[in-house]
Amino acid sequence: MATRTGGAGAAPEANEALRAQIVRAADALYYSRGITAVGMDEVRSTAGVSLKRLYALFPGKESLILAVLRHRHGIWEQGVEAAVAAAGSPRGRVLAVFDFLAEWFTEESFRGCGFVNAFGEMGPGFPSIAQYVREHKEGFQARMAELVREAGLPEQLAPQLALLAEGAQTTAAILGTAEPAEHARAAAETLLDASDATAGARP
């Protein structure tokens, strides 16, 4: 008996592999051209699957967008954590976030923050997408708060540093240059230096 690949009757591992294949194809299309510009049929064609299989795994475009955002969240976390792990000091771990951004901004495929892009296109009409974007951003702020705390820095620096990183992504996408990452890192260093100076001045 032949084994079916994809769809409700397929083995779980086959479905997961097919889901990943579709998500990668959709992610590339959505990120490069925008979500509303890409239909499900184009995703099907790029992923190399039938429309029936596509809809068996993703009943609608909203479910596919959420899967793409989860995929992109994983990529973001891997990039940030790799940069943080490579840093040599607690202060360096905080600044490593901006080093990650600088490297990302130089990629030819860079089109800004995929979560901001998705929110701008779909958020107002799709609460589930807006909520996931908020959770991603809140997760980044929480991670920044951990890094700040581990470095022994004042907790109020965390949202300030996170905003520098967020602004750098948007500015880099608009201007088409990686320089905003350098400027954001310099501003972050100024904040850290000011915090150190304040701490040193206390009796």
Brief digest:
Keywords: DNA-binding, Transcription, Transcription regulation. By secondary structure, the protein is mostly helical.
SSE order, one letter for each helix or strand: HHHHHHHHH
CATH topology of the largest domain: Tetracycline Repressor, domain 2
Low-confidence parts, pLDDT < 50 over ≥5 residues? Answer: 1-6
The first-level CATH class of the largest domain is given as: Mainly Alpha
CATH architecture of the largest domain: Orthogonal Bundle
Q: What would you call the shape?
A: elongated
What does this protein structure show overall?
The structure is a single chain. The protein has 203 residues and is mainly α. The protein has two domains: 1-59, Orthogonal Bundle (Arc Repressor Mutant, subunit A); 60-201, Tetracycline Repressor, domain 2 (Orthogonal Bundle). The protein is built from nine helices and no strands. The protein is elongated. This is TetR family transcriptional regulator. GO terms for molecular function: DNA binding. It holds the Pfam family TetR_N. Residues 16-76 form the HTH tetR-type domain.
List the helices and strands and how they pair.
Elements: H1 12-33, H2 40-47, H3 51-57, H4 61-86, H5 90-105, H6 114-122, H7 127-150, H8 157-175, H9 179-201
